[in-house]
Amino acid sequence: MTKQKIVITGGPSTGKTTVIDYLDSIGEVCLHEISRAVTLKAQEEGITQLFLENPTLFSQLLLDGRIKQFHEATDIKHSRIFLDRGIPDVIAYMNYSNTNNPDNFLEACATHRYDYVFLLPPWKEIHVTDNERYEDFEQAQKIHECLEKTYTELGYACIEVPFGTIEERSTFILEQLD
Question: Which residues does the UniProt record annotate as the domain NadR/Ttd14 AAA (predicted)?
């Protein structure tokens, strides 16, 4: 069976998680974002914003988790698996924060390839901040640019998902796969 690993990515305030949740609810196989879990675990250990305080450690934890997800997706017996973010997101966020990428991060991107990358643009009307999402809208736009640049430099042709209802956005994604 040919298996497609499909990344849904975007910066804060794009509707990415809502799209993933909707795809999951209609029976698609989805692996969910891990950065909030990493952030919450660090907060439980007394580190308010691990990404800001130790971006390399935060990024390494994300890299490890996303590689694990990649292998989980390989083992799932389904023709396509959606992932809420991919391994290159780690590099994009490191680039955003002007943190050097260790060689093993680029090696991980080279050896773990996805079949499709859908990029959701920042959406001002849905932008909110919370305990794990601290970026303002201008920062969300810069993160979007870093994501697009990183995936493109790694040889991906990002498919930008237009604004619309959750059903319209999900249908757009699914139609690209047919």
Answer: 5-169
Give the CATH number for residue 31.
Answer: 3.40.50.300
Query: CA–CA separation, 177 vs 173, rounded Å?
Result: 7
Can you tell me the distance from the alpha carbon of 96 to that of 63, in angstroms, rounded to the nearest whole number? 16
Distance from C-alpha of 70 to C-alpha of 5, rounded to nearest angstrom:
8
Q: Give the range of the structural domain holding residue 83, as residue numbers without chain letter.
A: 4-177
Render pLDDT for 15-70 as a digit per residue (tens, 0 to 9): 898 999 999 999 999 999 888 787 788 788 877 776 667 778 888 888 999 999 99
Cα separation, 175 vs 139, whole angstroms: 31
Q: How many CB atoms lie within 10 A of CB 157?
A: 8
Pick the closest to residue 57 from 72, 38, 82, 78 (CA basis): 38
State the total domains in the chain: 1
Assessment of whether the complete model's pTM goes beyond 0.85: yes
Strands 116-120 and 159-160: parallel
